[in-house]
Amino acid sequence: MTRFLVIGIAIGVILLALVGWRIFDHVADRAEMVRLRHLQPESPQRFGYDMISGLPDPAQRFFRFSIAEGTTLRPVVDIQMAGQFSLGDKKDPRDMAMHATQVLAAPYGFVWKMRAQSGHLRLSGSDSGRWTRFWMGGLLPVVRAGGDPDHARSAFGRSVAEAVFWSPAAVLPSANVVWEHVDQDTARVTVSHEGLVQSIDLTVAANGQPTEVVFQRWSDANADKVFRLQPFGGYLSDFQDVQGYRLPTRVEAGNHFGTDAYFPFYRVDVTAISFPTPDR
User: Fold this and answer.
1) Which end of the chain has the smaller Cβ count within 10 Å, N or C?
2) What's the number of domains the chain is made of?
3) Is 78 within the bounds of a domain?
4) Contact 167, 77 (CB under 8 A)
5) Is 220 domain-assigned?
6) Using CA atoms, how far apart are residues 167 and 194, in angstroms rounded to an integer?
7) Could you give phi then psi for residue 159, rounded to 5 degrees?
8) pLDDT tens by residue, 168-185
9) Residue 102: which domain range?
10) Which tens digit of pLDDT belongs to each residue from 75-105?
11) 74 occurs within a structural domain
12) What is the distance between the alpha carbons of residues 239 and 162, in angstroms, rounded to a whole number?
């Protein structure tokens, strides 16, 4: 057997292993999405203003704007989106055109499955409450993270923040969801689940339309690459009515929100949004 043949066989084995690894990720993504969709209540309640009567005024305005009275309360949501995902910073954004599918089921988890491209550079993979996995060109693994307390805490913050504006039924008051007054137009919601706690500040307009969210996120997106609390947030716009909910279809967000270092690396338009039934 010649040296070139041995090298060829070795390369083939490596490529097959990478393809198998990538397929495994796809299967895991789909399985987690199915699990989360099945968390949709089988016999959901309907929204009534009595559910929010004890909340601070900004929170009451938010729910009155976001959920029509009598709407079936479905906290699990499917989202399709397109936009820009940036790998760089203000000086060098390195924007990539991005498309993504997301299942959001706060506080239990989420899966955000994306693909992005800039020229010949292609990035794909998924982020979830359990893992972060990204591939370059579909065959080269470039990020493998998760399965530790830091990742779980950071992902929980994302899921709760996104639930506030894309799944308001998930943040109605309960034993594990507490709202408090901040100022005339801002309310803070604190969500607890399995030892994780996250507070989100929501600012609303006079009519209750949410305009921005901001929170202290556990993150290592900083110069030191060390996990710590730092501001994360974004702006909401272009609201549309969907099955009794009024939801933003344009979102931009980034790290260090409210500071000079803020850079919105995530800018998306929702192309479809729905609330799956439990049998999906």
Assistant:
1) N
2) 1
3) yes
4) yes
5) yes
6) 20
7) -65, -40
8) 999 999 999 999 999 999
9) 3-41+48-274
10) 999 999 999 999 888 888 889 999 999 999 9
11) yes
12) 15
